[in-house]
Automatic annotation (TrEMBL):
Annotated function: Secreted tripeptidyl-peptidase which degrades proteins at acidic pHs and is involved in virulence.
GO biological process: proteolysis
Pfam short name (any one): Peptidase_S8
EC number: 3.4.14.10
Active-site residues from the entry: 291 (charge relay system), 295 (charge relay system), 485 (charge relay system)
Protein name: tripeptidyl-peptidase II
Amino acid sequence: MRLHTLFSVLFGCYGLVSGRVFSRNFQLHEARDAAPSGFVLSGPADSDATIRLRIALVQNNVDGLVDALYSVSDPTSESYGQHLSRDEVASFVAPASESTSAVQAWLNENGLNADVLSPGGDWLGVDVPSSTANDLLSANFSVFTHEQTGLQTIRTLAYSIPAELTAHIDFVHPTTTFPSGTGHAPVFVSSTSTSTSPVQRSDNTSAVCGSGNMPVTPWCLQYIYNIPSDPANSTSNGIAVTAYGGAIPQESDLQRFLTEYRPDMSNSTTFTFQSVNGGNSTSNNSQLNVEANLDVQYAIGLATGVPVTFLSVGGEFDDALLDTANYLLSLESPPPVVATSYGDNENAISQKLAYNLCNAYAQLGARGVSVIFASGDGGVSGNKNSECTTFVPTFPSGCPYVTSVGATTLLPNEQAAAFSSGGFSNYWPQPSYQSAAVSAFLTQLGGNSSGLYNASGRAFPDVAAYGTLYDIYNSRAALEVSGTSAAVPTVASIVALLNDRLLTAGRATLGWLNPWLYGAASGAFASVTAGNNLACSGGTTGFYATSGWDPITGLGTPDFDKLLTAAGL
């Protein structure tokens, strides 16, 4: 800390000598002791290397935004379903005029002009050489290399801002948040279980789906969750499937998938492609495209007739999450369901950035959008961090304004998939909508795993669906894949089909789901009482599924007909 303070003073003096305008009164804003595990310092960043700085201004009324979100999302509220417009939502997060003026003046004094990146004006962006970024933020931007993958990134372990701007600037990105060195999409793994007490089904699931670890198809999922196959009717409905890292679905694979598994649909049914921030439009990387093919094939194959938009978002993952949210918020009518199969460990993202992203999801929820994320595929180790001793929550699943989806395995008697991530956030407290359900679980848990998780944190996942051995087509070949990423398009499709019934009846879309899920809709889920997600301490610690809510499968697996009734239809 002393070295950083000295570094700040030296840069303040440099500003005077060079004749450029810098504040001499820098104040440390964010810092970390060291780079994340796996990253090593390779050396200083090239002075001419361009950094896209994103400056988050202090939002003027986040509490008002959250109050409005609950008001339009809680079925017991008189304002339920009265979702806000783009401008109404933007007014809650728009910075005070003095904040915008002060920050723009600071940038202009340094010869910089920023772009406005968000509808509310709370995000500014400016491209600068790393040398300018160092001067501007009294920082030391350097190149860090991930030893396992060779991934290189430019980051700083600390940065400061002028003291007079601390009331106006929330944080600056990218600075102390590092990209993941291991990727973000869930790994496609199969699951085995030795549990002897699964939930029993008294139906013909085995005849339709097979039993045990059998490949899963759309008609199997339609059968076990009562998902209708008749086409949707509303023209204002839709699902946005987001993708990162260059993954692209192949239309030829989708055509083969529909021909084999949905012969009642036209095999020319396709998706709308949308590039955000330089997202790929083509990709020849077969392994990379698996995730995109899985998500699109099951979104189209289950949400019959619902328009699907595929968002290919460029840039590093954390940047891409910001760009995705701001793009969707800029639309006059964003798709009512947004499905994402990607995530990261919560502790890999700075708390300020995580809070800001979570506020963006609150904005989408207030506008009537259901934001759905996979819980992750590392059990209680988060994003596949097998060396953990304490449990690792994932992001964005820990954000209370998204719906987190876990996974089950084995038919006909579903049980929790061992890879299904779940637990308790260290960033967000437990929201009131889930307090009763989580309290019941903690009472059953007793003192087991005490000290390994934050019992007062936001608990996840919220719900689950089957997540193992999904049949897909990839590079014209049949493939079976598993993960919470498989469960996401299944849940998203169910929500989209519920929205279709609501819109056809002249009602509003479901929007932010969680108050409804834990309230009126809680009885529409089949509790999963077998399986575990042991993953830390060499795979010996974790949670076990139980009746009611649990941190592997949430409230359980859905039944479309019961959810329809819970929605008042």
